[in-house]
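User: I'm new to structure prediction. If I give you an amino acid sequence, what do you actually give back? Let's try with this one:
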Amino acid sequence: MSSIITTAVGVSICTQETRVRGWSMLSSTISRLAIIITFVGGTGCIALVGATARTPDNFSGSARAQDKSAQKAKGRQEAQDEPLNLSATLVQVPTVVTERGGKFVADLTQADFTLLEDGKRQDIGLFKAVKQPFSVVIVIDTSNSAEDRLKAMQESAIEFVKQLGPEDRAMLITFDNEIHELADFTSDHEELEAAIKTAEAGFGKLLYEAVNRALEKLKEVEGRRAIILFTDGVDLDSIEASSDSTAKLAEQVGAAIYTVKFETRWWIESQALKQIAEMNKRPDRPYGAEGRIPLPGSGPSPTGMPNPGSPKIQVETSGIPTISIKEEKPTAESTKENLDKMYGKADTYLAGLSDHTGGRVFSSQTLTDTRAAFASIADELHNQYLIGYYTTAKRADGKYHKIKVEVARKGLSVRSRQGFRTDKEPL
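Assistant: Good question. You get back a string of structure tokens that encode the predicted 3D arrangement of the chain. For your 427 residues, that looks like this:
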């Protein structure tokens, strides 16, 4: 018997293996034919299993002699047992098309699109027009958030939930020094709103592990899929995931990732510089930014100050923030340089996730900005095409393959997933 092997390359991968015993040419008469259909990530995969073939009556004598000679050389049994592998990997490509003014174009058909992989045209095997239901994971960074910032996050997320359609589904994840799954995928708006209101702020910041969790949750979800990240992009001490591992996983899963990026540097820098100025008076004081981060405009003074000696956000010379109370003697210049590294890495990470998956990054300075960002994301998800094609790229080569989507209609802008990476993990 042959096997059906499934994994997650792109939004979904379906690999079919058909074993044909005897002649490599299939006759029109196939006995003992079984058809198995399995669905992975919204993709139907059909495989012929256990098919045996008879030799065609018009098979030429010359071809028979050649085949007989080959069988003698290798052994009849070995030739009969050798499988014929037919692989088909479905790669799904979320695509948004707009006019020059930014208005969504929602009336295109499959014939309007051309899809290229590594520069080669592909046959479109899946096409779903706009206004189809979607599944989204909302990931909120609640670490070190003051009450006003946390409230703004909650209100914005609730407004987003209200814009979901009756068949749209959402899941809620928050993170600080732990990952919290507050709601599984559901279309129940009241359940989602109640879960959002239970979010609490903590210390620590496991961003990469939260992104990894969201991507893993979407692997087996069918249809349109997306992640909304509400974060500043800074990670603190993730162990089970990294920026590289989550970027590669995002390329494999293929869900569009949108980021609502809130600013925290202004507060971290103001607190660090304030402590530097005080170090001459108190040289034994630990250096770093203390307390909870408020919304911009709330004033530089932190709220919820921890007791002296409790963990601080440390601005290390590597530019990577850590939790420690190590004593240092920094300068204002070195502090700004280190923050440049830290937030530069955060910006690069968030931009890379969104650009490669067909999402976007929104800057959020105020509650108004945040609400507008969530509204724009909801509108875009409801105007997103889902296109798919069967690639012949080797399933486990671990390589990155570029994808380009073009439209026949002139004057339109296309934003889509830029490529996919096959999974090196054994199946």
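You can read the tokens as a compact description of the fold. Here is one thing that stands out. Residues 1-60, 75-86, 297-327 have pLDDT under 50 and may be disordered.
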